[in-house]
Amino acid sequence: MAVQPIRLFGDPVLRTPAQPVVDFDKELRKLVKDLTDTMMDAPGAGLAAPQIGVSLRVFTYYVEDQLGHLVNPKLTLGDEIDEEGEEGCLSFPGLSFPTPRAVRAVATGFNMYGEPVTIEGTDLMARCFQHETDHLDGVLFIDRMNPEQRKLAMKAIREAEWNNQPAPVVKFSPHPTHGKAL
Known about the structure:
By secondary structure, the protein is α+β, with helices and mostly antiparallel strands. It has one domain: Peptide Deformylase (Alpha-Beta Complex), CATH 3.90.45.10. Helices cover 23% and strands 25% of the residues. The protein contains 3 helices and 9 strands. The chain has helices at residues 26-41, 124-136, 147-159; strands at 46-48, 58-63, 66-77, 81-82, 86-88, 96-98, 101-102, 104-110, 116-122. The strands form 3 sheets. Strands 1-2-3-8-9 form a 5-stranded antiparallel beta sheet. Strand 5 (86-88) and strand 6 (96-98) form a beta hairpin. It is globular.
């Protein structure tokens, strides 16, 4: 098992758009395994590579007993928005807030071997795909809240025990074809 430290709100990697994966190699398969192990250990419903300090477009998910991952995802969203959905994030430990998301999402991308993948999700699965893809774009779930909810969320974040903790030391080394991985 290769559980990695999860980056917390305030770490710049969480606000940096991730780079597309270009090499579907052994290092990518290790990243997917590390993401899966870390997500399951947390436990969480999803985890994006930037959350462990790797700026690549990869995320894992575990929703409704479905375990998987997606590389270089693209989303197509349904029109119906769920204004009341509670959402949390492993980078904001112990906090959750109502966050609007589309009720339906179709995620396309690749698996770790470079094979095309299409996954349809509703409700929690759709929410997970949107949340994790946002991470890959440098967007956090608090950015999706209405101004009143965001103000309450920021107050809770400022008061959180984990806020202003130093970032963990990451053990990943940059992949030569991807530039900086951190």
